[in-house]
Amino acid sequence: MNKTVIVGGGIAGLATAFYLQEFGSSNYTLIECSPTCGGKITSTSRDGFLIEGGPDSFITQKPAALNLCKRLGLGDQLVGSNTGKQATTYVWSGGRLHPMPEGMMLMTPTMVLPFLRSSLISWPGKIRMGMELFIPKLNSTQDESLASFVRRRLGTEALNKIAGPLMGGIHAADPEKLSLSSTFPMFQDMEKKHGSLLRGMMKRPKRGTANSSKPTPMFMTLHGGLQQLSDALVAQLPAHTVRSGCTVLNVRPHEAQYQVLLSDGSSILADHIVFATPSYVTADLVQQTDPTLASRLRAIRYVSTATVSLAFRRADIAHPMQGAGFIVPKSEGRKITACSWSSAKFPHRAPDDSVLLRVFIGGALAEDLAEQDEPALIELARNELRTIMGITAAPILAKAYRWNKANPQYDLGHGSRITEIEQSLTDLPGLYLAGAAYRGAGLPDCIQSGIIAARSIAERVHANHDEYTSVCIGT
Ligand SMILES: Cc1cc2nc3c(=O)[nH]c(=O)nc-3n(C[C@H](O)[C@H](O)[C@H](O)COP(=O)(O)OP(=O)(O)OC[C@H]3O[C@@H](n4cnc5c(N)ncnc54)[C@H](O)[C@@H]3O)c2cc1C
Question: With 0-12 CB in 10 A as exposed, 13-18 as middle and 19+ as buried, what is 287?
Answer without folding.
Answer: middle
